[in-house]
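=== RUN LOG ===
request id: a7f3
mode: sequence -> structure
chains: 1
length: 408
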Amino acid sequence: MSLPRIAAQGIRSLAAHKLRTLLMTIGTIAGVAALVVVMSMGKGAEQEVMKRVGAFGIRLVKVNAGGGKGYTKPQAGVVTLKLEDADALRKEIPGPDSPHGWDIVTSVAQKHAIAMKAGDRQCEGDVFAVDSDWHEAMEWPAKEGDPIAPEDLATMAHVCVLGTRLAKTLFGDENPVGSDILINNVRFRVKGVLINHPASPGGDDENNRAVVPLTTGLRRLFNQNHLTYIRVRMKNPDDVPATAEKMRAVLHDRHHINPPEVDDFSIVTAAEVAEAARGISGWLTALLGALALLGMLVGGAVMMNILLVSVAERTREIGLRRAVGATRRAIFVQFLAEAVTVTVAGCAAGAALGWAVTALLVRFAAVRAVVSWEPFALAAALAVLTGLVFGVQPARRAARLSPVDALR
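=== RESULT ===
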């Protein structure tokens, strides 16, 4: 009997025992579905990493107040980063006159959850006190009105530019430009509204903020002389790593830090942002992927045990086939074909289920996922491998049955 006919015999046997076949495929279906979902989410996470790197800016170097390694946020209450540090960076690292220098150095002081009020509407928002070149450094212009200007800093003007969410909260559908708001009980005139901005690399909403002149924020609103961070934009992204090290050396000297003493600042580049995002998504993908593979292994073990029971139930059938001339090889191939067929069928059903679950997660749970061919190819390969590995033992047991003993 040819191999195709032997395999067809095994498939007919599976079709004759639908419930048993379904029980054997459940584990494979669950494992493959989980694998498709996990790998699709992993692809989506990779895209999110690149989006966050783009949001941070590949030409940017950020100096945060407070120590730390890799991607860290500014630490509240740290007062070591000063305006003089920003001035020193402007002077001591190559600037606009150098092809490998910076084109913007901008300073920021920020406070979170500050009380704001406009008319009878009130809320809490973030306040950013910034230099006039902050808009250009962040590539974040005003869509209505005007941005923070140099004369606003020179005169310590009580003006602000609102994020889109904050403007919506305080003014609804009205144009807020020219209106007054209270920020921590200090009156400011709204001179502009920022364009809508995507979430930060840390996932924070960037649009619930008011931007004020740095001088006004430091002296009349925050009553402080320290910064939250300094942002440096380079002309060439290839110069970012070397410039980051030069900046570190300048600040070590100014802050009298001798390594291995702990820094009282942290320097962040797009590379650190990407590494942090990949680290988080990588661990999640690895964990969920391990669970998916475990599901396939459990499904394979269940299938093997059901096939072993099937061999015992079909002893007389095996004996009759051997008695009429079927070889051990033919019996072995039939049962192995049944195992592979079960896992391949489970793979197809699991792939369809995984695709459907991924689509539902994207639509209703705001999960970022990208469906591609890789998880389906991997699932098919694993399904065939699972069928071959876990189907060998039942097939060997069926092939070793003696026709005489099987017919007794």
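=== NOTES ===
The beta strands are 60-65, 102-118, 121-130, 142-145, 159-162, 180-183, 186-194, 209-213, 229-234, 265-269.
The chain has two domains: 3-51+275-407, 79-263.
=== END ===
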